Amino acid sequence: MTGSAQDAGFSITPPRPGRLPLRGRDALVETILRAAEPPAGTTRAPEESAQILWGLGGCGKSATALEVARRLEARGRRVWWISAKDSARVSAGMREVAGQLQAPESQLDLAWAGKTRSPVELVWALLNESDRPWLLIFDNADEPSLLAPLDGRVAEGTGWFRQPRTRNGLVLVTTRDGRQETWGDWSTMHPVKELSPPDAAQVLIDLAGDAPGTPAQATGLATRLKGHPLALRGAGTYLAEANRIPVGGAGVSIRTYDGYREALDRRSAAGTTRTVSQAFDRAVRPVVQSWEMSLDLLAGRELAQARPVLRLLASLGDAPIPYQILLDPARLSASRLIGEIGEDRLREVLRSLADFALVDLGVIESLPVRSPVAHVVTLHPLVRELVHDHPDVIADRAAYHELVLTLLDVLRLRDPDRPREEEFDPDEPDKWASWHVLAPPTTGAVLAFFDAGELPRTEPELLTTALDLARLIARYLLAVSLPGQAEIFLERCLAACRRIGLDMRERAVLSLRHERSRAALEQGQLTWAEKELREIIPAREALLGREHRNTLASRHKLARTILEQGRWADAEQELRDIVRAEFRVRGPEDRDTMTARHSLADAVVAQGRYAEARAELTEILEIRLRHWAPDHLQTLTVRHTLDRCRLLEGQAAEALADLRAILATDTAKREVQHLGMINARHTLAEALIATGERVEAEKVLAAVVADRRRILGDDHPETVRAEAGLRQLQGG
Questions:
Q1: Are 182 and 214 in a shared domain?
Q2: Which of 338, 361, 396 delimits the end of a domain?
Q3: Contact present, 620 and 648 (Cβ < 8 Å)
Q4: Residues 166-175, buried b or exposed e (16+ Cβ, 10 A)?
Q5: Which of 59, 331, 469, 487 has fewest C-beta within 10 Å?
Q6: Checking DSSP bridges between strand 50-54 and strand 169-175, what pairing results, if any?
Q7: 164 and 285, same domain (yes or no)
Q8: How many whole angstroms separate alpha carbon 433 and alpha carbon 4?
Q9: What backbone phi and psi angles, to 5 degrees, belong to 490?
Q10: Same domain, 368 and 219
């Protein structure tokens, strides 16, 4: 799995099917299966290659799609499941699709950095060329614009969602948006409605069994619940639990289908359903009533904290929430919303919420089981939305925002002078797996706080926390090569800063502007990045001083921007000044000092002063080997640049031996298509030629040419250089 796709909510493997059968969707499933694999002697209409399942939240759209996925996967079809809840998950998911279709990681890096063909066109070219049948599912696409082309509409069919040009492919979307004009007349629309009374009754019986009453009584309750699958699930799990542990007398505990139906009637008559969102019709109200009854039951079992904990979870972003690290009992206990709650009580609350189908507890299998972020709690989207919009939550929104940010404060870095020792430093590769899980809920919470009316203006301490978390999120997105997502996120945060009335030259805001400039630099927006950095640097100098670590960071990015534009001498002069300052401020062996020195070496190499660059790189490598793993990718990159200098100075045998060692590491084998490792293989071929091993050199160089053609194109200077070397080697 590619680095950018590992985070929770970014997995593209279909979820595990539930233990109970899917009821009432057989005809719909068969229709979609026929579209995927038309009967012999028939052809598929073009619009049947794009299928839309639409309906109310919680009506079973995703469950139906999962059943289709399960059956087609069993027939040998490749299946991808993309969460379409936000642009980050769509982008990361489609990047992983491209990786599974054998696109090299280096090619993906270029596409996602905006340096070659667009990611959308790259992925769809691979899909349309695939020989193996496939199914691509966009789940929870309630904001269709996330699948649209830039400055366009989904119906144009040129965005992430489009009509396959191959008979091997089928695209399936689940959404609340059932408008044909949204999805285009080239899509087939399928409404997913409430279940019929017999099917709905069977769902209740599947969950609760015979103890609550007869099939006829189950049908009566199913009808009262309007056949809504999520309401049925809530009622069925409630009755199953009430009968499994029958606490209280017959007049107190509700254990039957009839008793549950009568309780719903009493609540409706008393006006206890208090949803204020007009986005939900009457069919959703029983869902609220059913879980309120479940929460009442838990309160009767001395678990009254289940209700505020559920509301807290709904206040975090719409994503799996790593509860081990975020739900700290001490911080929860300090909040008036939760009250005193220890580890055992919190564990019991979460387990009970899961038992009543209000949340799902799971483990992210791609992470070590001991990882502090591996264990996650997830709310059904409809449950989260309704809880989030409950009047009691709205009335106490400020307190929930405060608690959420207090819990997320654990992610902030405490000692910038010792970054490698920070548990959640987003710049360190070994912390990325944690951030894959942490970023989605943290992003949602930060953006929700910024949108919380007057609260950011009236709570400066919370605002400081939110701005710092925003910076960490942006650094993570940039570290895993998602500069486009970083740009979108940062633009929202900076727009909020302007709306709140913050001075754009304040320290925290300048940090966000700095990261925004990095996103522009990595996407090749060099003129814009240079202009912005030339505004940020004097502001940071006035606020912090010319040699403050933050000022130096902006100066370094400006120097990189100048270097990328080919102004090597100017870049070198600025980098030398930066390196001298880094020595004074951070010391000669700091991570950022190493980065600045490597940039300086790049500027020296670009001007042909190889011996000088070699001396610089040798010192950098010695320091890196003292503090970083020998096969760290950046360490290998420094070694390769050093070997290139050795080769150009006539030390071919020494360069050849080290290049072989580099390419034998696990990292190099894993990242064989990374441009840095392709460059190392090119230098290996040149070292082989210099030492007379021409047969092996031709084989290595031919592979380099093929890889560069595929990744960079035929006209890229590095491709041309490799081709020229190969022709010369072959005597052409």
A1: no
A2: 396
A3: no
A4: eebbbbbbbb
A5: 331
A6: parallel
A7: no
A8: 9
A9: -65, -35
A10: yes
CA distance 90 to 96: 10
Do 141 and 48 fall within a single domain?
Answer: yes
Cβ-count burial 655-685 (b if 16+ within 10 Å, e if not)? bbebbeebbebebbeebbbbbbbbbbbbbbb
Written as one letter, the residue type at 506 is E
The CA–CA distances, whole Å, from 551 to 468, 472, 514, 542 equal: 17, 18, 10, 10
Identify whether 449 is part of a domain.
no
Which of 191, 211, 236 represents a domain boundary (last residue)?
A: 191
Domain coverage including residue 298: 197-246+281-396
Separation CA 41–CA 24 (nearest Å): 29
Report whether 323 contacts 375 (CB < 8 A). yes
Nearest one of 616, 614, 606 to 576, comparing CA atoms: 616
Determine contact, residues 520/533, Cβ cutoff 8 Å.
no
Question: Structure pTM?
Answer: 0.65
163 and 201 together in one domain: no
Tally of domains in the chain: 3
Same domain, 178 and 301: no
Both 704 and 640 in one domain: the answer is yes
In a domain? residue 36? yes
Clarify whether residues 300 and 166 are in a common domain: no
Q: Which residues pair with 53 in a beta bridge?
A: 174, 190
The token pair at 133 is 């049948």
Question: Could you list the mean pLDDT of each consecutive 10-residue stretch along the chain, which spans 732 residues?
Answer: 43 83 94 91 84 84 94 94 89 93 88 86 94 95 88 91 94 88 92 91 94 94 85 86 72 77 67 34 54 76 89 86 93 94 92 78 83 88 74 88 93 65 77 88 92 82 93 89 84 93 94 94 84 97 94 96 92 96 90 91 90 91 90 86 88 94 86 75 94 93 83 66 89 68
